[in-house]
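Friendly challenge for the regulars: who can give me the structure tokens for this chain first? No prize, just bragging rights.
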Amino acid sequence: MAKILSAVAWPYANGPRHIGHVAGFGVPADVFSRYMRMAGHDVLMVSGTDEHGTPIMVAADHDGITPQEEADKNNRIIVEDLVKLGLSYDLFTRTTTANHESVVQELFRVCRANGYMVVQETPVAIDPKTGNTLPDRYIEGTCPICGAPGARGDQCDNCGNQLDPQELIDPVSKISGLTPEFKTTEHYFLDLPALAGRLAEWLDTVERGGEWRPNVIAFSKHLLEDVRPRAMSRDISWGIPIPGWEDQPNKRLYVWFDAVIGYLSASIEWARRREAAGTGSAEDWREWWNNPEALTYYFMGKDNIVFHSEIWPAELLAYNGEGERGGKPGAFGTLNLPTQVVASEFLTMEGKKFSSSKNVVIYVRDVLSRYQPDALRYFISIAGPETSDSDFTWEEFVRRNNSELVAGWGNLVNRTAAMIAKNFGEIPARGVLEDVDTALLEQIRGGFDAVGELIRSHRQRAALGEIMRLVGEANAYVARTEPFKMKDDAQRERLGTVLNTLIQAVWDLNTMMSVFLPHAANTIDAVLGGRGDVAPMPQLVETADLDSGHPFPIITGEYSGVRAWGPSDVKPGTPIAKPKPVFQKLEPSVVQEELDRLGLGEE
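First reply, four minutes later:
Bragging rights claimed.
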């Protein structure tokens, strides 16, 4: 049994999250974590809302409230959405906790003591209308390297190169649309050149391992071709105070410095909460962070690769004292580098890039208010942006829901339970198996190894595709054996054997499907005579900051004792009632209704 850390990207709390976000970080991380628990591993899945930085201040100013109130409002919206989606976090917290601030400042102090945080003067962009500092991502212009429009002040998505705001051609503020003014000020910089050699060694090692997605490893190694110090502080009043600069309240740590440390601080908070509840020790987090045998997987969209395959590993190496200047780790000990950065590509919508500001957006809570959460999870898993950009269209959403979930998997479950309820009222005993029965059972049981390996290697589309192929085999079995025609008493034993074989296949398929469709899996488990608990679900718990007492909701759950990944026998004699459909068929009119909501009805 391995210790598995599922480090899930932190959704930014300047507003609700759209389905493109959960396609990148949420559903893939949950599928992987659920599978790893069922495979017998000890999983710690952590994240939270990222709540510092200028965009929070901008949103708060627009809403006429304080940044903390803005963060509180959106934290709750995001927590509610992710719980409804069924994401099985051990702890989903936030970056405005006192615990997080303490952990971030500890990493900063040690990185500085080890010689990897240096003070330099740098130009800073100011919005001429508001007078506030502009974060790099709030400045857009033409890329000076490839000439692409829409490059941001920190990175060009077109060519992948890191940028500084003053390098952009014709830069403009995304807040006011005006040309930023630049002034020179002092900031702390993470000395990436002093860490580049060790970063390159690490990337070479993971590349030889062959498990990283080729696009991720290629992009990550490309980043080292032009490595330079990166500013880790900002001229801003909303963020974590900089140790030693407490007398400068308008200088704070860069939001991206503090956000990635959240994986560690959330793990520490998880352990502290366990100790407070009497269920563990405050040091339990070390089993995932100081244990060199632990495996750590980071889930995100491709626009965050730079922070997870360069900046965060560099922070860890600096804290550990493993750069060219040496040094020694602090109180947290030597911290593990990522085992794998699992980055997904972009999900577009009706052929357009998601943009909340341009109203090209489908919010998670809007989808969940009208459709089943597993319909969204299914689409993301079977057609999401795993290794290439993919497009969400309402027409394709409805088609996959109706032809695959309803007509394929849902129909198999319904007809199996209905035939057993009608003919026996309970799971019948199995008689002598014929070749057609054995062939189906062997295929289904063999599916566990194939599907499990695909999920472990982050090929979730292929894994779900294999399950649906097996669903097709089970439906074909019904067509071949025709149990609905076995009406004579002389055929009753054979009918019982066929239906026993069929419900066994469906039972095992539902075990596999539970990591992708947990809500439906629990419903189907109950339909098949189980307790309806094959997929443990997360809970929203009202709590408070362990240090300040500030109230907020967290996501947590009890996921121990899950069903093992593998076949398990159904029990003859288990009552089976007439079922109700598990999945909702969608009317074709849904497509036009949703396009009209998006303002695309006339296109």
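The chain has a mean pLDDT of 94. The radius of gyration is 26 Å. Your move, everyone else.
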